Amino acid sequence: MGLPHLPPRQPHHPALPWLIAMKGHPATGKSAVAHALAQRLHTPLLDKDDVKDVILDLPDANDLAYRVMWQMAETQLALGLSVIAVSPLSYPSEYARACEHAARQRANLLVVETVLAEAVWRRRLDARAPGYSTHKISGWEAMQAMLRQYAGCWQYPIAAEHHLVIDAAQPIFASVQSIIDRMGRL
């Protein structure tokens, strides 16, 4: 599968705001890293699950939560503010949306993907109490079932200039510093 149809890439410009789109499976540390980064940069953080928690009973709640998150992100970018958007970003269409919003608002884009070694990831998922959330995955077996249902859709190409993979097993301050260093290099 190739890259989704995207608007022309904008070169990095330090004076432009950043859209930092967090990407990763449940329990890989994306929220923890995003919260620490938001505090360090004093940047608004928008979490798709915060929206979904409120609208869970509505039809198509997941898609609607993404749409609300992206609309709110674009509003922040239009104000000249950087923003961190937290979601699994499992589908190439969501990456395409991030690209479109960043291009429309002349913002820099960075997709920060959190990953973990399987044993650590498994421990984190199994440590989640069953039923701790009405819509978040808990347990390794539930995660494996979800991955089978996704059929690899999350493994889409991301432009190298947009992509940073973080091993979330490292200390959070190191993850945050890696992101800040990458933002300075682009």
Describe this structure in words.
The chain is built from seven helices and five strands. It is of the alpha/beta class and 186 residues long. The chain has one domain (18-185): Rossmann fold (3-Layer(aba) Sandwich). It has a five-stranded parallel beta sheet with strand order 2-3-1-4-5, with helices on both faces. The longest helix is centred in the middle third of the chain and has 18 residues, at 61-78. The model is unreliable at 1-12 (pLDDT under 50).
List its salient traits:
single chain, 186 residues, alpha/beta, Rossmann fold, five-stranded parallel β-sheet, 5 strands, 46% helix, disordered N terminus
Draw up the topology in text.
Layout: E1 18-23, H1 30-41, E2 45-47, H2 48-55, H3 61-78, E3 83-86, H4 92-104, E4 108-115, H5 118-127, H6 140-150, E5 163-167, H7 172-185
Parallel strand pairs: 1-3, 1-4, 2-3, 4-5
Helix pairs in contact: 1-7, 2-3, 3-4
